[in-house]
Write a structure and sequence with these properties.
The chain is an alpha/beta fold and 367 residues long. The chain is 47% helix and 16% strand. The protein has two domains: 58 residues; 298 residues, Glycosidases (TIM Barrel, Alpha-Beta Barrel), CATH 3.20.20. The chain has eleven helices and ten strands. Strands 1-2-3-4-5-8-9-10 form an eight-stranded parallel beta barrel, surrounded by five helices. Helix 9 crosses helix 10.
């Protein structure tokens, strides 16, 4: 074979080899490109899904009903101790009752005195109560007057059986002897897992027959701090001391043992109105989801006082932003409106004419 033929064959071999390498290189490039495209598609889908989920939970779809759509004329107020202990004229009592009626108030939490360390309340603290109830009911029998029994939790040793028995016995005095329509416990702060307080609720409900369907049903009402859902609570409590908030598990235990929960949605150290509004929206969503099996159990407590403290800024946490957030929460598709009963104002003595107008404009009726 001539050298010419050998060079030709060698040249052909090199060309085939070159073509093969280029072919494999091109094929590899195509495969890598396809893989990168798939990765980008998956990342895009994950991003879109994350955006949708974030939108749903942070903003979410909602209706646009006016606040009056949710108004059941079943609102509440905390009322000062003076009505229980100090004599008042018929005219003063009539004005109070008429103002409550105008505000769609159905429940008045009438302060009857702080609970003593032994579980009692001295009779002198509520000496004017019988006359107040007699006169008030002549001007309207729709309002339910509940004995507001309060105390600082640390001053009330509920771990002692005798103290718990005295608390329940005192509650029966207000309902059975004085004719009040129920009991409103406001013992603060209740911390998550406080079983002694649950025992008080159990015994009180049994003693009053609360929860029955009779016409003269006695109401067992409870003031509680806000609730944080378990999926949030489990994370946040690792870095914060959440003594002012309760878990969903504890809320359900209280709901099983009471007829009404007034959630105190204030004193959260919030200094921006829109943040308070946003917080109220989601608190309402969380609570109505949690309590969806308890019709009419929930009152949303809003502040009307103006005393600024490190934990309370009245320019942010007030009736205007509170009502706006509450109504947004009730409009959310994630909410269940059945548990919602009304608004509870703290308190009747701090709610001025402008705040009543705000209540009327945003919630009581469409203007």
């Amino acid at each position: 074979m001539s050298s010419h033929h050998q060079k030709t064959r060698l040249q052909q071999f090199r060309e085939r080899l070159s073509v093969g390498v280029k072919g494999r290189s091109a094929s590899g490039s195509v495969s890598t490109g396809r893989m990168m495209m798939r990765v980008l598609q998956v990342c895009l889908l994950v991003f879109i899904l994350a955006v949708v989920i974030a939108w749903y939970f942070l903003l979410g779809p909602s209706n646009r009903e006016h606040g009056s759509f949710f108004n059941r004329q079943a609102n509440a107020v905390w009322a000062p101790h003076t009505w229980s202990e100090d004599p008042h004229s018929v005219e003063e009592i009539r004005e109070f009752v008429e103002k409550m009626a105008a505000g769609g108030v159905k429940y008045v939490f009438l302060h009857v005195g702080p609970i003593e360390a032994d579980g009692t309340i001295p009779g002198a603290r509520y000496r004017a109560l019988p006359e107040f109830l007699k006169v008030a009911r002549t001007y309207g029998d729709r309002v339910k007057y509940l004995a507001w029994m309060g105390q600082i939790r640390g001053k009330l040793p509920l771990q002692e059986l005798q103290v718990r028995r005295e608390v329940v016995r005192t509650a029966r005095v207000f309902v059975e002897e004085l004719g009040m329509d129920g009991i409103h416990y406001d013992i603060e702060p209740i911390v998550d897992g406080d079983t002694d307080f649950l025992y008080v609720l159990e015994d009180t409900k049994k003693a009053l027959g609360a929860g029955n369907l009779s016409r003269d049903k006695k109401i067992l009402s409870v003031a509680l701090p806000e609730m944080i859902p378990d999926y949030v609570f489990a994370v946040v409590r690792r870095v914060l001391d959440l003594k002012s908030y309760l878990s969903s598990e504890y809320y359900l235990k209280v709901a099983e043992r009471s007829d009404q929960i007034a959630v105190m949605t204030y004193e959260n150290s919030i200094h921006s109105g829109w943040i308070y509004q946003y917080f109220l929206k989601h608190e309402v969503i969380w609570l109505t989801q949690l309590l969806q099996d308890y019709k009419g159990i929930l009152l949303i407590g809003l502040p009307t006082y103006d005393t600024k403290t490190p934990s309370f800024d009245p320019k942010a946490e007030n009736i205007y932003f509170g009502l706006k957030g509450m109504i947004e929460g009730l409009n959310s598709w994630r909410s269940h409106v059945d548990p919602f009963e009304g608004v509870a104002l703290y308190g009747s003595w701090t709610t001025d004419a402008e705040e009543w107008k705000t209540m009327e404009r945003l919630f009581l009726k469409r203007l």
